[in-house]
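Preliminary data (for renewal application), NAP complex.
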Amino acid sequence: MTEKTFPTTVTLNDGNEIPQLGFGVYKLKDDECVTAVRHAIEVGYRHIDTAAIYGNEEQVGNAIRDAIAAGDVTREELFVTTKLWNDRQGAEESTRAFQESLSRLGLDYVDCYLIHWPCPRKGLAVETFSAMAKLQGFGSIRSIGVSNFYAETLDEVISGTGITPVLNQIELHPGFSQAELREVNRERGIATEAWSPIGRGRGLDDPVIRRIAEEHDRTPAQVMLRWHLQLGNIIIPKSAHPKRISENFDIFDFHLGDRDMECITSLDDSTIAGRIGPNPLTFPEE
Ligand SMILES: NC(=O)c1ccc[n+]([C@@H]2O[C@H](COP(=O)([O-])OP(=O)(O)OC[C@H]3O[C@@H](n4cnc5c(N)ncnc54)[C@H](OP(=O)(O)O)[C@@H]3O)[C@@H](O)[C@H]2O)c1
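Predicted structure:
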């Protein structure tokens, strides 16, 4: 068996450590999901990102149990995140939704539980986050955080509960580098986690990315992911393909210079600029 390397970790504001590189499972279904997560663990990923809305918590749990049974990993070595969907916000409803997620995953605890979207029009983020803090107190959740939050909603939760989320998982990729929101997170002691870190493939053919990839003898996806690591972002690239899952993990032995970093960040002004997903200020539309 080949020696496995582990990604660097980020220390969260509650003292827990999260592997900076994780595996995202959005859109992975059924056996394809089990096989992909199993392969990711085999390659060395120790952080898995799912959500109730992805409909694959059960398959993620199966893959984890399988990997543990095979002796590839222990539960303690893994960092498992899941998320509360929008229609389950509120104190009692979110507690029920969490228990359902835990049961689908077949785990005793999750490492991180996130409010998936702030849903500002509902006005339920504070009571939801308080309920998550209670579950954390019972030991069912190690760390609590949020996703798709912006300054106002972060401050509402922090002032309303007295607790600062450990991380904010936001859309972030070359072409949408979110300098302002990364700074908002940093000022509050919140780690930034990037979803769609390779922009769902948008930008893989961009000439700037391709040139840098050629110069480093790497693939465009590896260059994008390396850019994130050097910015300090936690990342969770998704792939259904074993070769790509391995490729996306193989980013710890090269370095981008300042000029490369600036060129990638300046893609915010290029043809690949902009959001892919919904705007958290207005999502979900009602
Ligand atoms: N919090 C949120 O609201 C939110 C929203 C979206 C996503 N997420 C999380 O973030 C994770 C990642 O985001 P994402 O899945 O939207 O996008 P992504 O990871 O940026 O990109 C995934 C896409 O890129 C392709 N791909 C992956 N590796 C590649 C490589 N090395 N070369 C070429 N193509 C490659 C994949 O295709 P194949 O699968 O065919 O390889 C897939 O189409 C999700 O899985 C989910 O866990 C969270």
